[in-house]
Specification:
204 residues, Spore Coat Polysaccharide Biosynthesis Protein SpsA, Chain A, eight-stranded mixed sheet, MobA-like_NTP_Trfase, nucleotidyltransferase activity, Nucleotide-diphossugar_trans, Nucleotidyltransferase family protein, magnesium
C-alpha cells in the first residue's frame, strides 16, 4: 500500500442552498426513512478516515448534531452563497497539514458504505500523487480522492481554485475507477430527480 488511508480525511460538502428544489431543503428530504445528507454521512462513517469533516451553513444547528452522530466535525461556511469553492476553503483551513482526502457533495444518497470503502481502499493502493475518480459509463462521478500533494496545492490557493479547475490543469494525474453502480453520478438536483429516486427506493 503506497499511502495509509487511515491518515486521510473524509470531507462532505453540505452547505448548498438547494436552489432548484422549489423551496425544499434537499438535505432533509427523506430517502426511505433517513434524510438525504445523513444517509451520505452514514456511508462515509463506514470508511476508516482519520477525520471526517462536514461543511454546513450558519443556521444548521440540527444538522451539526446529526452529523456528529456519524463522527463528523462540522465546519461553518459563513458565506455559502459563494458556492462550493467557499466550502472547500473552510475544509482546507481546518487541516493543519495536507492529507489524502475523499471529497463528496451531500446529495448523492445512493452511495453505499461498501462502494466508498472499495473506493478508499483502491485509492490507498495507488501512487500517493494520484487523483482517483469513479466513473460510470464514461461519466465522471463522486466522491473524488486526492493525494497529499494535490491537497497541499489546493490549500495553498486558499479555496480560490475549485477542484474541477485543478483537475483540468492536471489531467495527467487522474486515474479512473470504472464502476457498475450509477450511485456515483446520481446527484439529486431537482424535484423530478428526487421523485425518481423515491420510486427506485421506496423502502430504502
Amino acid at each position: 500500500m503506497n499511502q495509509d488511508p487511515v491518515d486521510g480525511v473524509g470531507i462532505l460538502l453540505a452547505a448548498g442552498r438547494s436552489v432548484r428544489m422549489q423551496g425544499r431543503d434537499k438535505r432533509w428530504l427523506p430517502v426511505g426513512k433517513v434524510p438525504m445528507a445523513l444517509r451520505v454521512a452514514q456511508a462515509f462513517a463506514a470508511v476508516p478516515f482519520g477525520r471526517r469533516l462536514a461543511v454546513v451553513r450558519p443556521d444548521d444547528t440540527a444538522l451539526v448534531q446529526e452529523f456528529a452522530r456519524s463522527g463528523f466535525e462540522s465546519l461553518i461556511n459563513p458565506d455559502p452563497d459563494r458556492g462550493r469553492c467557499s466550502s472547500l476553503a473552510c475544509a482546507w483551513s481546518a487541516l493543519s497539514e495536507a492529507a489524502p482526502v475523499m471529497v463528496s457533495v451531500a446529495d448523492l444518497p445512493e452511495l453505499t458504505a461498501g462502494l466508498l470503502q472499495d473506493l478508499w481502499r483502491r485509492f490507498g493502493e495507488m501512487d500517493p500523487e494520484a487523483i482517483l475518480i469513479p466513473r460510470y459509463q464514461g461519466q465522471w462521478g463522486h466522491p473524488r480522492c486526492l493525494g497529499r500533494p494535490h491537497v497541499a496545492a489546493l490549500m495553498a490557493h486558499g479555496g480560490r481554485e475549485s477542484v474541477p479547475v485543478y483537475l483540468a490543469k492536471n489531467p495527467q494525474v487522474i486515474q479512473f475507477w470504472d464502476v457498475k453502480d450509477p450511485a456515483v453520478v446520481r446527484d439529486v438536483d431537482t424535484p423530478d430527480v428526487y421523485d425518481a429516486l423515491c420510486r427506485r427506493q421506496p423502502n430504502a
